[in-house]
Amino acid sequence: MQAILPRQCGVRILDKLGEGSFGKVVLAVNKRNRACWTDRSFFRKLTAMPEEGDSVVLKCVRKEGCYGAKGLQCVAREVAIHSRCCHPNISRMYGYYENGQYVTMILDFIEGKELFEILRTRRQLPEEEACLLILQVLRGVAYLHEKRIVHRDLTPRNIMVKPSGHALVIDLGLAVDLAAEDGDAPGKPLGSPVGAVGTMGYIPPESMRNEKITTAVDMWSVGVVLYEAVFGFAPFAPHEVMAGGPVEFPDPAWGPSSDDMQDLVAQLLSKDAAARCTAPAALSHAWFRPAAAAADALAP
Fold first, then answer.
1. 259 annotated ligand-binding residue
2. What does the alpha-carbon distance between residue 163 and residue 45 come to, in Å, rounded to a whole number?
3. Is the dihedral of CA 67, 75, 44, 5 positive or negative?
4. How, if at all, do strands 159-161 and 167-169 pair?
5. Which of 59, 218, 237, 249 is 20 to 30 Å from 179 at the Cα level?
6. What is the pTM of this model?
7. Is 59 annotated as a binding residue?
8. pLDDT tens for residues 37-61?
9. Which has the closest alpha carbon to 94: 50, 146, 58, 136?
10. Weakly modelled stretches of the chain, pLDDT under 50
11. Which sequence positions are flagged as catalytic?
């Protein structure tokens, strides 16, 4: 695995975290100090520099596995978007480099668990814990939307939770920059339909209808994640996503849920994208008020 790195890069691979048809993800440690990273061959592709001894994640994408020029453009888009992001609730990218058959992104290592793993073990979260977690996710999402970036794949697998409770949005591989795609026209959606992109179960009805992308896509996904975290199952069966009915809530015997929480979920899971709650509006919702101070304390 060490062979995927440039010679004398100062990064030592510790473990392989995952591997697929497109490449692999490995855990590594930076063995060089900051001054060494200013070597011209690296500096031009770094937006930030890890400290000596910092753990990093290397996301190594195989060039021949990217489906040609279009695939490489997608990798370049991910790098361009992620390198612009600097927020306590979004995973950090240090930069990238190309080496032979790989394009490798250098990401901060997050010690914790995917929300998916947490829910698989515990099934449900107490409402107070879900509130703190989703508040942090929404802060990251609001930051992306302010930059006119749409994540497009917000799922429990793309939310990391540290032991402290600090939550971060990860994997901007499907993210799009609306400004870049639409000629930087404020308030306008993406200029052409792109279909149902993302993970089934978290894709909103307008995307299933192949409609234009807006930031409302992410808000639907956050609503699904919140519902699953509190109740332990999805808000809609697959055939119900395209139906006209509103979201329904389980009988209180399944578990207590507050009126404020249900109100927010109903706004997030509006099947009318234009009527769906925005990230700033969601952050100002009454349900989050008790968790605001705790979320502030978790931010590094």
1. no
2. 32
3. negative
4. antiparallel
5. 59
6. 0.86
7. yes
8. 445 444 346 666 666 667 788 887 7
9. 50
10. 1-4, 6-8, 20-21, 33-35, 37-38, 40-44, 184-193
11. 153
